[in-house]
Design brief:
Elements lengths: L3 E6 L3 H16 L3 E2 L8 E6 L4 H19 L5 E6 H13 L5 E3 L7 H9 L4 E3 L20 E5 L1 E2 L10 H5 L3 E2 L2 H13 L4 E5 L8 H4 L4 H9 L6 E4 L9 H9 L3 E6 L7 H7 L5 H14 L4 E8 L6 H14 L3 E6 L17 H26 L3 E10 L4 E6 L10 E4 L9 E10 L2 E6 L2
Parallel strand pairs: 1-2, 1-3, 3-4, 4-5, 5-6, 7-10, 10-11, 11-12, 12-13, 13-14, 17-19
Antiparallel strand pairs: 8-9, 15-16, 15-18, 16-17, 18-19
Helix pairs in contact: 6-8, 8-9, 12-13
């Protein structure tokens, strides 16, 4: 009987791609992949370790499997991903029930590691971060008609609140040829939507080519038969060039949706965060995007309660959100992360104040989100079908303005026979709880 291996992958889409590469290696080695981790012989927890809430989630998952192991229901637990890379020996020491603690630079050895733990060996290994596989065969773990396309790894931006450079290493791009080859394989396997990701996609190519090459890469991806949508996540505001804007505007396959994590708008806070670009430059960039790409939907995230953030700084942020009317917005209360410069700053903000500011900012955003939903009524949107909700008695999917897992859905009725992955035109007739409601056009 084949050994069953399951995986729980936590955190961001970049971590998901790492998991999918490992899953393909495990499958090719003859292990049976099992989606119910409680029924597996070996469970791999691919962790996130970015902020405190993510670390807590990772540890809770690990402890659940420790309980199953103690009950004799699973044989071995392997921990990899950002938590194990960041805390290394601490994870190995504090979680003795875990059979392997694997840094991201050792992901390529996952098959060997499984064999070693099944033979009773405890493995604690941390390869060079730069040895993390950036490409390779993958088993797509989400709906089969879209895939995340990781074009680079690591980060050189050195924001004072962020541990990513310590965890993932310096920024390193894949070649255009390598990325395009993967995208063609994905298209042949039925992928219609590519979601371009990295810690900072706008920096793409600088390390390899001596210049930013994202527009050239996007042009090459748009030429691939079978790919119908290309979505861009994680763009750095001061790197959004005129060339990139022209590329987004002119290429019909690139959906008019852009993720730009701004983090703040106060110059005082931006400087403390070590973010490049001033408040005035951010505002000018947004105005340029709105003018040159009519109808573009902008997603952003902000951090509130950063050390030294005054009430004036916070009010400036609230006013900016009211004025800019972001269609999609998320907010995080600042989390002091060990070994980051900001964790040692004076004027740390009380937790209660941070949470209150987070709630206030999201209340400001509610009106913007409601206005956006109302503006969609009467419009016809391209929607990629995801499934059927029998409770709502309607199909559902995502419009061009919705990224998987983070944005709302479109629920719609249709007289036609459709299947998951079809792209249909839906006329929006109403909305509820930020989900749009409509019907297909005949």
């Amino acid at each position: 009987m084949a050994i069953k291996v399951g995986m729980v992958s936590l955190g961001c889409s970049k971590n998901q791609v790492d998991a999918e590469i490992m899953l393909s290696k495990i499958n090719s080695a003859g292990y049976e992949l099992c989606t119910d981790s409680g029924l597996c012989d070996v469970v791999i927890v691919n962790t996130c370790g970015f902020i405190e809430s993510a670390k807590t989630e990772a540890i809770e998952n690990i402890l659940e499997f420790v309980t199953l192991k103690n009950e004799g229901r699973i044989k071995a637990i392997i921990v990899t991903g950002c938590l194990s890379e960041r805390y290394r020996e601490e994870v190995a020491k504090e979680l003795p029930e875990v059979d392997a603690v694997v840094g991201i630079g050792s992901n390529a050895d996952i098959v060997d590691i499984i064999g070693r733990v099944l033979n009773g060996e405890r493995v604690v290994t941390f390869g060079n971060k730069e040895d993390l596989p950036l490409d390779g065969q993958r088993i797509i773990s989400n709906l089969p008609f879209f895939a995340y396309l990781k074009i680079a790894e690591g980060c050189d931006n050195r924001c004072t609140y962020c541990a990513i450079p310590m965890i993932r290493g310096n920024f390193r791009s894949r070649t255009i040829e390598n990325i395009v080859a993967e995208a063609k394989t994905l298209a042949r396997n039925g992928v219609k939507e590519l979601i371009v990701i990295a810690q900072d996609i706008t920096r793409y190519g600088l390390d390899l080519y001596g210049e930013r090459r994202l527009p050239a890469l996007l042009d090459a991806l748009c030429a691939i038969d079978g790919i119908e949508w290309i979505r861009l996540l994680y763009t750095y505001p001061d790197e959004i060039s005129d060339e990139l804007i022209d590329c987004i505007a002119s290429q019909p396959k690139i959906v008019k949706y852009l993720d730009i994590p701004l983090q703040h708008i106060s110059d005082n806070v931006l400087r403390a965060m070590n973010r490049r670009g001033s408040s005035a430059e951010i505002r000018a960039m947004i105005q340029k995007l709105r003018q040159r790409i009519p109808g573009i939907v902008l997603r952003t995230t902000f951090i509130v309660g950063f050390p030294g953030e005054t009430e004036e700084d916070f009010e400036e942020l609230c006013e900016f959100v009211r004025d800019t009317r972001f269609e999609r917005l998320g907010c995080f209360a600042y989390s002091a992360e060990e070994d980051t410069p900001a964790a040692a700053f004076e004027n740390q903000i009380d937790e209660e104040v941070k949470q209150r500011r987070c709630e206030v900012l999201m209340d400001e955003q509610l009106t913007c989100a409601e206005n956006f939903c109302e503006s969609m009524v009467g419009q016809t949107l391209d929607v990629i079908v995801e499934g059927y909700d029998r409770y709502a008695s309607s199909c559902f999917g995502r419009s061009v303005y919705d990224s998987p897992d983070i944005d709302p859905k479109v629920f719609f009725t249709t007289p036609e026979a459709i299947t998951a992955g079809d792209i249909v035109k839906v006329k929006i007739t109403d909305w509820m709880d930020y989900d749009l409601i409509g019907e297909t056009e005949v």
